[in-house]
Amino acid sequence: MRNEHRNNILHMTIAPAEVSEHVAREAHELAIRLAKGFELAGTLAIELFITKDDQVIVNELAPRPHNSGHYTIEACSMDQFDAHIRGIAGWPMPKPKLLSPAVMVNVLGQHVEPTRALIATHPEWNVHDYGKAEVRHDRKMGHITVLTDNLMPRLLTLRPPAAGTTEKEGVTLSMVEHIERQTKQKDAIRAALADCEEFISAQDLHRRLEDEGSKIGLATVYRQLNALADAGAADTIRLDGQQLFRLCGDDGHHHHLVCKRCGKTVEIDPPSEAWLRKVADGHGFTVESHTLEVFGLCLIAKRSRKRRRLRKQ
């Protein structure tokens, strides 16, 4: 998941985190190594930092259920508390699954009254009140979790009222400014990708956006490209160890010839459904979706290779 902090206090948790395939794999492998090294029993929360060049760095460890894991109560097949008890008791441990994307927002002392005033009008909220006797500014008093298939409109924020506003007016639950900024960034990234005839890396697309004057971070470009790929709006391939992206056509085309040298792509007709199902059945698989990327050399790349060979002779 991805955490956002305000004034050194966890504000929001977004699950799943929108990170590159490389970062997700590195984080998972690092977590496994740490758990095995500690001979862990129970839950281990690991706070990671992601650098601009996609390095994964451990910042903090918490061998217990963690505030950022509260979304698991509604969003997962097993919440962090049940997993912790099963772990330390040595009970069988099925692999927890994320059943729905989710956003969790902490409710601090200054948010309690305005939050309670709005609960009745927000049936999509899963509100948890910790029942603490003393309400203090910046003290964690509860949290709200929202399950959603579309994270952006559900990114919630609870913030202290600005000067001259009432408590209720100070509770901004649609996160309008944030969403508008994210929407503009998403549109800019999609437009830049649409201008690319061939597959392109997140780094190269980020440089194009910078050249155009767009101030969008590389991590945001990664997140949005992966979101497009997850939604079926973009194809993604790995070429020479690098993840590349290309916007799908209006027909959602996912089948290409790809030049390994220059990245040129040509759309091709997909294989027959009957052939795919026969192959899948032979391995005990079902067919839910498919892409086909055939890697080789385009005509120009072949000629270039031939010229290089002739020069060597």
Key terms:
313 residues, alpha+beta, 9 helices, 13 strands
Provide a descriptive summary of the structure in words:
By secondary structure, the chain is α+β, with helices and mostly antiparallel strands. The chain is built from nine helices and 13 strands. The strands form four sheets. It has a five-stranded antiparallel sheet with strand order 1-2-5-7-6, with no helix packed on it. It has a three-stranded antiparallel sheet with strand order 8-10-9. A hairpin with a 2-residue loop joins strand 1 and strand 2 (about 10-15). The model is unreliable at about 155-175 (pLDDT under 50).
Write the layout of secondary structure elements.
Layout: E1 2-6, E2 9-15, H1 21-37, E3 45-50, E4 56-62, H2 72-75, H3 80-89, E5 102-108, H4 112-118, E6 126-129, E7 140-147, H5 176-194, E8 200-201, H6 202-211, H7 218-230, E9 234-239, E10 242-247, E11 255-259, E12 265-267, H8 273-282, E13 292-296, H9 299-312
Parallel strand pairs: 11-13
Antiparallel strand pairs: 1-2, 2-5, 3-4, 5-7, 6-7, 8-10, 9-10, 11-12
